[in-house]
Write a structure and sequence with these properties.
Structural class: alpha/beta
Strand content: 5-15%
Number of helices: 15
Largest sheet: 8 strands, mixed
Radius of gyration: 21 Å
Length: about 475
């Protein structure tokens, strides 16, 4: 496996805990010691609110579709523009590295930056001027200064790379301020928040996207094109995961500023981070584009990994000894689609395991499995032995043929994501994925938690498209546009 493909894909963010509410000083604090291309850390929430995600949407009837408050955003193109003016909220490890890619894109200009940690904002602002662009406006005056960034008249797109808990509020503020917005995953943590983002996107006519970089991975895009060309036959099943041993990082005070990431393991039992695995498989199967995810059933193992690691590595006076972990060490979910296909999702960040997203797709003619990459397709293979996936390079997406050795983190997928986003905005194209995809890919967070608490009982996944999933439409398997 290419070394770049085994890199950390964590997009997380940090914050200190305040019993009365999120700290007004440190909500966007980020982990200074983390590696390039990784996420920020996330904030924690007040105790009263912390229990809410654990029952996220418990009072919400998932099989009842709210009345639409606007027209669909399916097939709606961006407004064509010669220059895409970008505002970035959150300048830690993720935002602080992704800014390099925005600055490298022809037709993109970084005009505004926001992070309460002034040193991080100053460092990012210097990158902008070093790249030959005018000095950006900076917003460092507390946790809510992002609202002022969103109000600017010279921002076309807001990029959010902040703590999980703030994703919903920042996406909402950006759209209400007339801006298109892209958010690191997960886009929200509660079912009702997902519906509100869908409604806001439709009402404001602004795109709200889950910036899922794994959808732009070289292997993922090759499998996508092969699937659409019929090489796998009729698609039957797929799998995706986020399996990443984060034990050392979650207990490292120099990585996450505050125990926010660990504290989620005291609140939720479900899949905290389904997007990296779910997004690519959803694309293979054209979910929301001829098929849709209809229900999810989840089970979780006992929560033992973090407590065992704490016992082995943490001193007796460490604050973590006050924590009780309930998050299942290994969460396994089965998603069924309207066409009867099955998708397996897994999440595990607290037991020993090499990094894996699983990334598997099977049909009537064979299957692909990643980590390590291998393929078995008839008639090319017929001897019960795996074939060489490298021999299918002719199926690479045009993005990977045009940018064979892209810069940036995560094996180039970050670059592909930013390149394609800016291209779609400059040329006035329909984005590769939309708010309905964002909501679908994130819905397993609250619903898997609910299913586990109900002993694996299936939970209905809302139809965020309100019936429009039945119509086939383009997605990530795009044609190269004319410039």
């Amino acid at each position: 496996m290419n070394e770049a493909r085994s890199q950390n894909h964590d997009h997380d963010h940090t914050h200190s805990h305040d019993e009365a509410g999120p700290s007004r000083r440190s909500v966007l604090w980020t982990a200074g010691a983390a590696g390039a291309g990784l996420g920020l850390g996330g904030l924690t929430v007040p105790q009263a609110a912390a229990a809410t995600p654990g029952t996220a949407g418990a009072a919400y009837d998932a099989d009842t579709t709210p009345t639409a408050k606007g027209r669909t955003m399916i097939g709606v193109p961006f407004e064509r523009r010669s220059t895409v003016r970008v505002g970035i909220i959150g300048l830690g490890n993720r935002g602080g590295s992704m800014i390099d890619l925005f600055l490298a894109m022809p037709g993109a200009q970084v005009v505004a930056l926001c992070d309460p940690v002034k040193e991080k904002t100053a460092r990012a602002a210097k990158k902008v001027t070093t790249a030959g662009q005018p000095a950006p406006a900076v917003y460092t005056n507390g946790d809510h200064d992002f609202e002022q960034l969103c109000k600017r008249g010279d921002v076309d797109f807001v990029y959010v790379a902040t703590p999980w808990d703030w994703h919903f509020e920042m996406a909402k503020t950006a759209m209400l301020s007339g801006k298109h917005v892209g958010v690191e995953c997960p886009i929200a943590l509660r079912l009702e928040q997902l519906w509100e983002l869908v409604d806001l996107s439709e009402r404001t006519r602004r795109h709200c996207m889950q910036l899922e970089n794994c959808c732009y991975g070289k292997n993922e895009m090759r499998v996508l094109r092969m699937a659409h060309a019929g090489l796998f036959g009729e698609l039957l099943h797929g799998a995706g995961a986020y399996i990443h041993d984060l034990r050392g990082l979650m207990f490292d005070p120099k990585y996450y500023e505050g125990p926010w990431r660990r504290l989620w393991h005291t609140r939720l039992r479900g899949d905290l981070y389904p997007n990296h695995g779910f997004g690519p498989v959803a694309n293979y199967m054209d979910l929301n584009r001829g098929d849709r995810a209809v229900r999810i059933s989840s089970m979780g193992s006992p929560a033992r990994g973090l407590a065992a690691y704490r016992k082995e590595h943490m001193p007796a006076d460490d604050p973590s000894w006050k924590e009780s972990y309930i998050e299942s060490d290994r969460t396994v979910s089965l998603v069924q689609t309207a066409k009867g296909r099955v998708i397996r999702l897994e999440h595990d960040v607290s037991t020993p395991h090499p990094y894996s997203r699983i990334n598997s797709l099977g049909g009537t003619k064979g299957l692909f499995e990643d980590y390590p990459e291998r393929i078995y397709l008839e008639p090319d293979q017929n001897n019960d032995e795996w074939g060489d996936f490298g021999k299918y390079a002719q199926w690479d997406h045009w993005l990977w043929k045009e940018h064979a050795n892209p810069p940036g983190g995560h094996g180039g997928m970050d670059y592909m994501l930013v390149f394609r986003l800016i291209q779609c905005m400059r040329l006035g194209l329909v984005p590769d994925f939309d708010v309905y995809d964002a909501a679908t890919w994130t819905a397993p967070v609250p619903l898997s938690d609910r299913s586990i608490k109900a002993n694996g009982a299936p939970q209905e996944i809302p139809d965020f498209t309100r019936g429009l999933w039945k119509k086939a439409r383009p997605g990530m398997d795009s044609e190269k546009p004319e410039e």
